[in-house]
Amino acid sequence: MMRHIAIYDTTLRDGSQREGISFSVADKLKIARKLDELGVSYIEGGWPGSNPKDMEFFSRAKGEKYKQARLCAFGSTRRPDTDVTQDANVLELATAGTEVVTIFGKSWDFHVYNALHTTLEENLAMIRDTVLYLKTSGREVIYDAEHFFDGYKSNPAYALSTVQAAVESGADVVVLCDTNGGLMPWELTEILPVVQQSVSVRLGIHVHDDAGMAVANTLLAVRQGVEHIQGTINGYGERCGNANLCTVIPTLQLKLGLSVVSPEQLQDLTKLSRFVAELANIVPAEQQPYVGYNAFAHKGGVHVDAVSKSPETYEHVQPQQVGNQRRILVSELSGRSNVYLKARENNIDLLKDHPQTRLVLQRLKELEHQGYQFEGAEGSFELMILKTLQTYRPLFKLEGFRLIVEKRAGGQLYSEATIKVQVADRQVHTAAEGNGPVNALDNALRKALEEVYPALKKIKLMDFKVRVLDGADGTSSQVRVLIESRDDRKAWGTVGVSPNIIEASWQALVDSIEYGLLCGQLPQLDEARAVMRQLKAEI
Predict the structure, then answer these.
(1) Strands (E), 361-511
(2) Inter-residue contact 494 to 380 (CB < 8 Å)
(3) Domain 6-261 bears CATH identifier 3.40.50.300
(4) What is the DSSP secondary-structure string of 252-286?
(5) H/E/C letters for each residue in 402-417?
């Protein structure tokens, strides 16, 4: 029979301790629903005795219907020399309304003396009293043995006595915690078997990533029989973070062949990773295994050619298994396969060994040499192909523009752009202000075009990045501007390069608007693609 691994997610509590993260109650409820859809076994909602936000979360969560996950309230053992029935934090746990309660207690004698300022025996009594109280109230109790591995290395007998105290009082699961994140894999393999011989209930693992070992230690614990895994989405957590469930879950399922979530649920993992990152207001880690934007990105020409024939040559799993997708990058390292496959991604039908493709590749490398980068600028890349193959008609023609930047009394900067463009059979001459020269240009160009192209109102500039390509020339250095835009259907990137930041911005801005309009309302892209399909048919 296949082993089932219980996944315990602590993103809403431990994950929110990462610097810069502050989930609202509404955010936490949304994430909890998504975690339930993923198929985790437990969702740790927070510490109801520690702050009003978590108390409100548990109050509102009582009305939620979870299909698979069970909600957990988190807290500590009773305070030293306090009756458990009089401890405010323990009482909050009992009244949180969750069927599962997780409590942590001290396993390290150093902490007992220096953090709790009590005796070793009183610490054991605190563990026994709290577990027993919560068990008699009808809860499933998960006991987190905080700092267990450090405690074991300091005083093995005492560390074991703390988890045995929890078991004797009725704990359903004992979780061994590497709270400081410094545990090495070889230490885990030495300590874990000793605990397994001493503890009769299910064991869990909770590790932090301060030595970069969180995922490795989690997987190693599973290999040695642990069946309860704690971690967070994207590895969020205090200091260096927790074990990353976006890496642990697919590895357990796809590499170890264990039952974690259904294949259909696993396909939602990338979407969940980015959803949580969005609510956390953190840019997703592009290099993150499995779910990162670059996890299945291929740049080198040899790699791309091989992947086009057999994906397993350079991919350890299929990207769609985790809801991600393969990306073909184009750069100075590209071969014809990169251009061919990247064009195909954008529904442009090129022939891999046709002179068309060689012409595009030659133009690509010329532009890359000048400093252009198309890895995040698929809009400019597609327009470059159409222009190179002469299947593109500009939507407007710039006659000229003028920028005024003035510093007025009071220190405020004022920017105004005057622009003259030819649109169809009309010449439009207009002006607009902005909070900077690029914003003023954007406003003036939109003002000139929106009457002819009303779809432009749907196109929004989402991000604007400037990079100096070689600082040796100081303020005259070549700069690259990347713009990310979107409408109500999709997002795209565009790029411009020049020693003049205004010119680089103008290039990226024009590409952004033209590509958005082409995709949004005009048949020109389809006409250009049809021309290339015809060329292919004639060969």
Answers:
(1) 397-407, 413-423, 426-434, 460-468, 479-486, 491-498
(2) yes
(3) no
(4) HHHTS--BSS-HHHHTTHHHHHHHHHHHHT----T
(5) EEEEEECCCCCEEEEE
The domain segmentation of the chain, as residue ranges, is: 6-261, 297-370, 371-395+455-539, 396-452
What does pTM read for this prediction? 0.70
371-395+455-539 and 396-452 share one CATH topology?
A: yes
Which residue in the block uniquely carries the two structure tokens 């990045």?
A: 465
Asked if residues 108 and 74 have their Cβ atoms less than 8 Å apart, the reply is no
Q: What is the CATH number of domain 396-452?
A: 3.30.160
Q: Looking at mean pLDDT, say which of 87-101, 139-153, 510-524 comes out highest.
A: 139-153
Q: Cα–Cα distance between 282 and 60 in angstroms, integer?
A: 26
Class of domain 371-395+455-539: alpha beta
- pLDDT tens-digit profile of 120-129? 999 999 999 9
Of 109, 53, 112, 110, the C-alpha closest to 77 is 112
Res 375 pLDDT > 80: no
Q: 219 or 298, which is more confident? A: 219
pLDDT for 480-528, tens place per residue? Answer: 888 888 887 778 888 889 988 899 999 999 889 888 888 764 445 555 4
In the sheet where 426-434 sits, what is the strand order? 397-407, 413-423, 426-434
Do the Cβ atoms of 146 and 163 come closer than 8 Å? Answer: no
Helix or strand holding residue 297 (H, E):
strand 297-298
Q: Please compute, for residue 399, the number of CA atoms within 13 A of its CA located in the half-sphere on the CB side.
A: 12
